[in-house]
Design a protein that fits this description.
- The complex is a heterodimer of chains A (264) and B (165).
- Chain A has 10 helices and no strands.
- With 264 residues, chain A is mainly alpha-helical.
- Chain B has 165 residues and is of the alpha/beta class.
- Chain B is 33% helix and 30% strand.
- The longest helix of chain B has 28 residues, at 137-164.
- Chain B is elongated, with a radius of gyration of 26 Å.
- The termini of chain B are far apart.
- The chains are: A mainly alpha (264), B alpha/beta (165).
- At the A-B interface, helix 3, helix 7, helix 8 and helix 9 of A face helix 1 of B.
């Protein structure tokens, strides 16, 4: 009886300790990445190559999803607003929800599954095939050469992708709202411009997407670097990247929103 | 993939990102109309501001000439003090009347300036003396009800008196 209880408690303690240890390792790894970023930023071509793989190749998925999200917002928003006779406010609804929330959050979720998983798999496979160890043997720091460029590429790409997502979404809302349903074009844009503030709404969205970029890239490079050097290890790490970064994005979004839009 | 192609693609990517940010700023946001370059501050005291919010527009003849930047309560006189930034291009006479109005039946509230004829103009930091509070719908309805009731009572009394005679 007592033995069973002790074993239970020990199991619980092990779980907590393991998590804490991993979090500590991840934080130290984050600091190491920042510390060794000199190479990635000085030899900027390394980072540009990664921006191509993480950012440019995500363009299509981001643009198409943004367009569809905007079009759905246009339809749903119109359906609700016209009950209150204020369908001209459709532009405000589409723009504010995209710029403040949906743009940064959905773009970050897509980015985590499109680019984050690829980064983890790549670094994990490099580790499994002992390329990272080989680099260390040649006195090349793998964090400076492999990890930091990917991290910075993610951080740079994320705000760009989120801004593009919002812009495409607004365009999608315009297509459905104005072109298809027939909301007045003038009031669609003018009400939007009257209620969307550059500093309050758009810049806060950019700040959000920057924070999400740091979170997703950090989790992706860490999971890759920490992956067990086996086939299962890499696949598990890839899954963990997507799950952890999606949860982290949503949690961070709540915290950021609570600070930014308290409704002063 | 060679370096030049890579640079081209990444350059294109960053350019698209900047273009969409510009689109958001100019077409979606208010950066194009936020051109209140030099603004000066005015204050006005209202008995009741109704639903006026910070950042509400200030309009004169229907044109936006400034924004409400601050709303606070004056604990000595028990009135609301509204701080406003008015576009420096526009000067208003010292007897300008500040009213809290509503755009449309249920729209947002704004401060309306009705211009007077004083030759002297407001300077930065001045307080607008002539103000009119927001119309509170409940007060309006209750006034209407009371006046109705008063009318009904008087006519009732009149008929009573008539019968008494």
């Amino acid at each position: 009886m007592l033995d069973g209880l002790t074993a239970l408690l020990r199991g619980l303690g092990k779980q907590v300790n393991d998590r804490l240890w991993r979090l500590g390792f991840a934080s130290r790894f984050f600091l190491m990445t920042l510390f060794y970023s000199g190479t990635a930023l000085r030899r900027f071509f390394l980072t540009i190559r990664e921006i191509y793989f993480t950012g440019v190749l995500s363009l299509v998925i981001i643009m198409v999803s943004g367009l569809f999200v905007g079009m759905v917002l246009g339809m749903q928003g119109y359906d609700t607003l016209q009950r209150y006779g204020s369908s001209e406010a459709l532009g405000v609804l589409v723009a504010l929800s995209l710029v403040r929330e949906l743009g940064p959050v959905v773009a970050a979720l897509l980015f985590a599954s499109r680019a984050g998983s690829a980064i983890t798999a790549e670094i994990g496979l490099m580790k499994a095939t002992e390329q990272l160890s080989a680099m260390e043997m040649m006195a090349v720091n793998p964090i400076a050469r492999v990890v930091a460029p990917r991290f910075w590429a993610g951080v740079i790409s994320m705000p760009i992708l989120a801004a593009l997502f919002s812009a495409m979404g607004v365009f999608g809302g315009y297509l459905v709202g104005v072109r298809l349903i027939g909301v007045d074009e003038g009031s669609f844009w003018s009400q939007m411009q009257a209620s969307v503030d550059f500093g309050e709404d758009i810049m806060n969205g950019v700040i959000k997407s920057f924070v999400f970029g740091v979170i997703v890239s950090w989790i992706a490079v860490f999971e890759g670097y920490d992956a067990e050097p086996t086939a299962e290890g890499v696949s598990g790490a890839t899954t963990r990247t997507v799950v952890t970064s999606s949860l982290a994005i949503l949690a961070a979004d709540f915290i950021l929103t609570a600070f930014m839009f308290r409704g002063a | 993939m060679n370096r030049l192609t890579l640079d081209l693609w990444v350059g294109l990517f960053v350019a698209i990102g900047l273009a969409s940010l510009l689109f958001l700023a100019l077409k979606v946001g208010n950066l194009s109309s936020a051109g209140i370059g030099e603004a000066y501050r005015l204050e006005a005291k209202f008995d009741n501001i109704g639903g006026l919010k910070v950042r509400a527009p200030i309009k004169s003849a229907g044109v936006v000439v400034g924004r409400v930047t601050e709303i606070r309560f004056d604990p000595e006189n028990y009135v609301a003090v509204v701080g406003m930034q008015v576009d420096g291009r526009y000067k208003f006479p010292r007897d300008t009347f500040a009213t809290i109005l509503t755009s449309g039946l249920l729209g947002e509230q704004y401060v309306g300036f009705e211009v007077g004829g004083d030759p002297e103009m407001f300077k930065a930091g001045d307080v607008i003396k002539k103000t009119q509070s927001a119309v509170v719908l409940e007060k309006l309805i209750s006034q209407f009800m009371f006046s109705k009731a008063a009318d009904g009572g008087e006519s009732g009394k009149a008929t009573d008196g008539g019968e008494g005679k």
